[in-house]
From TrEMBL, chain B:
The keyword RNA-binding does not apply. GO terms for cellular component: EMC complex. Belongs to the EMC10 family. The keyword Signal applies. CDD domains: EMC10 (cd22209). It is a single-pass type I membrane protein. It is found in: Endoplasmic reticulum membrane. PANTHER family: CHROMATIN COMPLEXES SUBUNIT BAP18-RELATED (PTHR21397), ER MEMBRANE PROTEIN COMPLEX SUBUNIT 10 (PTHR21397:SF4). Residues 1-25 form the signal peptide. It comes from the Eukaryota. This is ER membrane protein complex subunit 10. It comes from Denticeps clupeoides. Component of the ER membrane protein complex (EMC).
Amino acid sequence: MSALVCRVVAFFCLLRASAAVFEDQVGKFDWRQQFVGNVRFAAFDAHSQASKKLLVATEKNIFASVNSRTGELFWRHVDKTGQDGQIDAMLVHGQDAVLVVGNGRLLRSWETNIGGLNWEVVMDTGSFQTAQLIGLADIVKFVAVLKKSAISLHYLSNGHQKWVENLPDSDTVQYQTVYSSGNGDVFVLGLVPHSHIVVVAYNIEDGEIMKQVSVEAPWITSLDSSCAVVGSAVLLCVDPVSSSLYTLQLNAEGRAEFVHIPLQSLDLEAEAGFHPVVIATQPHPARVPLKEFFLQLGPERFILLQLKDGAIAPLRDFNPANLVAFATTGEKTVAAVMSPKNETACSINLFSADTGRRLLDTTVTYNLDPNGGKLNRLFVLAFLKKDDSVGYRALVQTEDFALTFLQQPGRVVWVREEALADVVTMEMVDLPLTGTQAELEGEFGKKADGLLAMVLKRLSSQLILLQAWIGHLWKLFYDARKPRSHVKNEVTIETLARDEFNLQKMMVMVTASGKLFGIDSKSGTILWKHYLQNVQPNAAFKLMVQRTTAHFPHPPQCTLLIKDKDTGLGSLHVFNPIFGKKSHIALPTLPRPIQQSLLLPIMDQDYTKVLMLIDDQYKVTAFPSTKNVLQQLQEMASSIFFYLVDSSQGTLSGFRLRKDLSTELMWEVVIPAEVQKITLVKGKRANEHVHSQGRVMGDRSVLYKYLNPNLLAVVTESTDTHPERSFIGVFLIDGVTGRIIHEAVQRKARGPVHLVHSENWVVYEYWNTKSRRNEFSVLEQYEGTELYNSSVFSSLDRPHPPQVLQQSYIFPSPINTLEATLTEKGITSRHLLVGLPSGAILSLPKMFLDPRRPEVVSEQSREENLIPYAPEMPIRTEWFINYNQTVSRVKGIYTAPSGLESTCLVVAYGLDIYQTRVFPSKQFDVLKDDYDYMLISSVLLGLFFATMISKRLAEVKLLNRAWR
Amino acid sequence: MASLRQPLSSLLTVLLLICTEFVHCNTNKRATDGQDADFSVPLEHSFEMDDVPRFRRRGSLEVRGGRENGVSISQGQLSEEDRNMLKEVASVDGLYRIRVPRVSLQADRQSERQIDGYLTAFVRACALVESHLSDVITLHSDVAGSLIGVSIVTIPGACRGVEVEDEVDLDVFNTTLSIMAPVTAPVPETALFIEKMEQEMERKGKNPQEQKSFFGKYWMYIVPLVLFLMMSGAQDQSGGGASGGAANGGSR
């Protein structure tokens, strides 16, 4: 019977904890955006006129098809991260796209309409060089894959290998290029730098070597960008040292030799220090390449040249030009050239490739984004119009990973911000108040100027409020009459205003490429973007909100600390998080590497929180560093502590600020680095509120929580990785006194450890090497049944160590990231948000991770609503807050409180971005959507009238009785 | 500085002595009882008006090596000078710092590692004075047995500005000393859970009555009850009105 009862209890607990989304709630307060990352290869699907597919392969190992009309994804294939899934080459032919993946390990063919896999073959090992489509008699039949020491030919239809041949002298010769013009020969070109070029011709049918020549070329360094095959099998190379061109007839009979053509003879000259680049095109793999080619002589100088009968003639000089590209439609090949128009705009023009003449009505104007990056690449889709003239659309890729799709005469069809595929850190900032609200706020901010003036001011602002309210009511009434689909408020930066419950916020996202975004959390619209030009690719970012929106008329202020990983030097970027504008505040100079940064609760006169930066000589820089701030710092100095971690030495050291802004060492804890290495140090979030000081136990006594705001959770991993001896260490250290509150060792365990530290608990996840499974462990700290000092917490005055309880559970899935929900006042129960590798985000009630879960159910534990202990943690599909909106490669989850106590805003980011709201204790402070207003009001009205009538009747009755 | 170096060198010699002794005994047997592996570690303290640490010897910690790490402290009285200094430091809210060298508590590691730094901790001097020099010092060791941290707290820990008569109260330290080694974190309790499940299964197997559902067991009571309720409900429709009318009449 007790088992039944406990099961019933557990069932009701679950019933209360479960919160799934109803079907009609899908997309109501959540959205997802999918990204692919920085594009490496892009190709337009040009086999039919109506096609609107753009195929991209990216640095994030993703192969996707983008709708070129809308910029949305048709389909997307996410491969493994890292070297294994790296896409080395993409070749598109008709409906098929052939990819070489994982440094030449796999060859795959995809059907581009629906994204299905045609075939996949595993290739022999060897470092990949290049891949090329090979045609025979005007039909493309094969794909050739060149590796360091072998070349193989595969059928395009089924991937079967036709032949594979070893390359001669592959240990000395670097083979880099494959060329075929569809006449039965496959040329493989290799070189020995500063010595000679090797040309090997294979028979397409059986791989027999038809010819092998070696040509003297003491000037050659690389084939990749300085050489290209032009016209009918002429290898054209450019040598920057002697400033000349060389041509070589590949299929010449007899002794082959380079023909030397000095650039001066063409009245050309390469810019000093620039390595010239040859850009040629082969419109069809089974035909010869074009005779015309571009020669880039400087960063902004291109020349269209033509090779005719062994002689080179310049067709047109483009100076200045940013980017060039060839495009082919039908039999026509055009050259698109993008050239700067003025400071803020560029124009793209089409030129006939064979004459160099400009085609009429082909200008597209491209406006440069002042907050964007430099131009990077240009892709052009050309098509024949009805009148047989050439029309085109252009895709421009910029340095900040943005893709812009342009249409004539300069309309931006769509923009994809692929930098968002790699969000590093983010913050959510409250939106500013509306004009009227700000007016009311401003009243309190100003100095008093007489009683009458104040009264008048108050009246006028109240009037404005009334007016706004009536306007709002009118709008509500007006909107209510329209069908719902028509009411769609476009979010723009001008209409941004805080809503009643502060559910709509500004998401400030920092991406790895150094581009910052301001995104409206309600709709996912990008409201502003700002590209930081000179950010190193491996920089570390820390985003801090120095001034929130609460201090009208002072604008909110965010500060981004950018730290170079190699040098450790830091720089600050201060901006307004609502508009993205860079602030003109004087920034402190940071000549030394930054070790630690902390945002102090001290505020300047203009309500800016003070940011303290500590350099490697333990010198402190305050930002802002006004007189007021410095004075406050001096006063508070003795209570400002900070800690530094040196994981290579295993030292954690605590420092205190001195009055003269120098620092002194207060404590030191040294965890020997030869045994275990510090991998994670995590404090609590500064904006976290804990509502209840303790927990009421079954016998009505209170177990008080140990709520130390200075507590750090430190995780170490053993250097010994043997499964039997490896362990992880978990330390709870007070950040002020350096006192080790708790020290635990999880034996036979290994990282990576994911950890959440909040309130009086720490939850971490690790890999159990013995049982080969993922496990969760929860640590809770309690002061006991009596509180030492209930009014205030001081790390210096808390002599008794807390009781620490711990329990572990099996978790049936690996995890990617872990975060806890956060609400305004901390009344709502907490949930853990677990990002799973499957892309689901699990909202796991903290109730399941409670070290007080009893193994044997007792009356008291039942009273306390504790779930009986079960070693395995359940994963229920209704706990997935993102239902089928999976977030690929989820990397982080950000939680922010909203104005409603029940509601926590959640943003999960990784490859995709997903925003939603969670209600850990259900919406206890919100009426349901389907709340029956009609029923309740009619019941109320009915009761009201019923009382009126019955009162009247009673009166009549009394009167009648009195007459009797 | 000279006064500091002297005890340090003496400590080194002590350590070396222990090491040689230990190596000697290790050839014979494993030192698990630890009688031979005792050694001492200096405990130093510093309290200065200008808050620049100058550590002096306070006492020594006698560590009993071996399986169960025990530690005891031997320390002298505070000198008159020190007492006055401590009171002065307390009056300006200065700090009282202690430090111990980084050593391994596992005696057999002594030969491997030299002292390469100190572990420091602090407490407010006023708290120490007001608690009449009653402090709690905890040494923390890691898995391998080397010291990783030291902490000091006083009981009570607060500074309330109470006057302390130095002669009586600031004479000797009343120190509680302990060593904290890492505890082994629990792993999921599968064995107990399975046992419990099995017991439950067994009990169910013995008592087939339990296996039946609630309805299955008590249907003979439920069905008549439901029938009765239905019947009475049907009668109520007419009888209820009548009784209501009767009640009305009664009130009149």
